[in-house]
Amino acid sequence: MTAFDAAAFLPDDLLERIRDRAPTHDRENTFPDADLAELRDAGYLSILVPSELGGAGLGLAQASALQQRLAGAAPATALAVNMHLVWTGVAKVLADRGFDDLRFVQEGAAAGEIFAFGISEAGNDLVLFGSGTDAAPLPGGGYAFSGTKIFTSLAPVWTQLGLHGLDTTSPDAPKMVYAFVPRTEEAAGRVVTRDDWDTLGMRGTQSRTTELRGAVAPADRVARRIDPGPNPDPLVFGIFSVFEILLASVYTGIARRALEVAVESAGARTSKKTGLAYDQDPDIRRRIAGMALAYDALPPQLDSLARDVDGLTDHGGRWFSLLAGLKHRAVVTAKSVVDDAVLVAGGSSYFASHELGRLYRDVLAGLFHPSDPESAHATIATAWLGPLDA
Question: How far is it, in rounded angstroms, from Cα 161 to Cα 239?
Fold first, then answer.
């Protein structure tokens, strides 16, 4: 098998430009428009689209490696792009299994469309299995969505918002409805994007709150109507698998970058006590070794599970626990590695302008993405112990 050349899709010079812009977007709380433009020009937004439709035809394992690389340069840019890649990845998962429901996503991504992920809702711990957003059926098969979505990354630039809502009025209700709303609904006043993204970290994602006021998804953009609750539908599997793997990839990239900065800092700092660089200090060496031991476990896990998705491996009922566990381990490990990197670098890393200060704030966002620690532990406990007694 030919080795995958990540630099062919994310060249070093492109990554350095993105890295150079990251502090400004963090400081000024702005969206990385130039990053997105360069990534689009490089064909990055269609890496998961089949070559016959104008994309690069990569698999999820390759996209994971690329997102790790991008996150090492600019975590917020990587996380924002992640949400677009999730939908193109879901389209690939479906197509690989014989379902053509999201071909329009693949064609749209190849044509330059930006897909955002409108699933998160305040207080909705059902996530994919329920929604507080109302999906009202329209004549002709379309739907009008009313509700509030939070953490809508790519808020200033998306052209299609992939979302879900609950249909409670159709004869076969209730049904979860997955569909895509075009940006034109904003001009009609049926989509309102709040300018409310003022956060501790991941500021460049501009994951603003989105109000839906009867926003219309036309019939040809309604992807699925399925029963609420846990569901084996391929769309649900696709969203969960691609989201968890690509999310874990971003935080794994943060861990790698924190380790690199710690190594650089240890070599650059000198002990007044010994006159030696800190990379000669036994305690510092042990701390960095611990960071490397923790980090080294993540890329192989990501590669293995992503290849299983690409290869249509059947893990049956274990899939959700494996994916939730992967995401949980990645974000917890990344936070631990960044914590240790800050200790290695010393007090200078406490300044907001220091790269590790930014990574420290950015890595915290991982704790809030699904599956959160409580959900991950509950899912894995059920996988090993069975469901709770009624």
Answer: 14
Q: Mind listing the pLDDT tens digit for each residue in 99-158? A: 999 999 999 999 999 999 999 999 999 999 999 999 999 999 999 999 999 999 999 999
On whether the CB atoms of residues 247 and 329 are closer than 8 A, the answer is no
For residue 2, pLDDT over 80 is answered with: no
Q: Examine residue 174 and say whether the peptide bond preceding it is cis (omega within 30 degrees of 0).
A: yes
Question: How far apart (Å, rounded) are the C-alpha atoms in residues 385 and 310?
Answer: 29
Q: Reduce the DSSP state of residue 299 to 3 states and report it.
A: helix
Which CATH architecture describes the domain 116-226? Beta Barrel (2.40)
DSSP 8-state symbol, 275 = S
pLDDT in tens, 355-381: 999 999 999 999 999 999 999 999 999
Least Cα distance to 245 among 155, 319, 154, 153 occurs for 319
* Mean pLDDT, residues 328-357: 97
Q: What is the pTM of this model?
A: 0.97
143 strand-pairing partners: 137, 217
**332 vs 373: CA distance, rounded Å:** 9
Q: What is the CA radius of gyration of the chain?
A: 21
Residue 88, Cβ neighbours under 10 Å: how many?
24
Asked if 326 and 302 count as a contact pair (C-beta separation under 8 A), the reply is yes
Q: How far apart (Å, rounded) are the C-alpha atoms in residues 236 and 216?
A: 22
Contact between 140 and 174 (Cβ < 8 Å):
no
Rounded CA separation 49/91 (Å): 8
Contact call for residues 362 and 264 (beta carbons, < 8 A): no
Residue 163: strand pairing partners: 118, 179
CB of 153 closer than 8 Å to CB of 83: yes
User: Taking the domains of the chain in order of start, what are their residue ranges?
Assistant: 6-114, 116-226, 234-385
369-378: string of b/e by CB count within 10 Å (b at 16+)?
bbbbeebbee
Calculate ∠ Cα 224-127-234, nearest 5°: 35
Fold for the domain defined by 6-114: Butyryl-Coa Dehydrogenase, subunit A; domain 1 (1.10.540)
Q: CATH for 234-385, among 1.20.140.10, 1.25.40.10, 3.30.70.100, 3.60.20.10?
A: 1.20.140.10
CA 366 to chain centre: 9
The alpha carbon of 77 is separated from its chain's Cα centroid by a whole number of angstroms, namely 10
First to last CA, the chain: 50
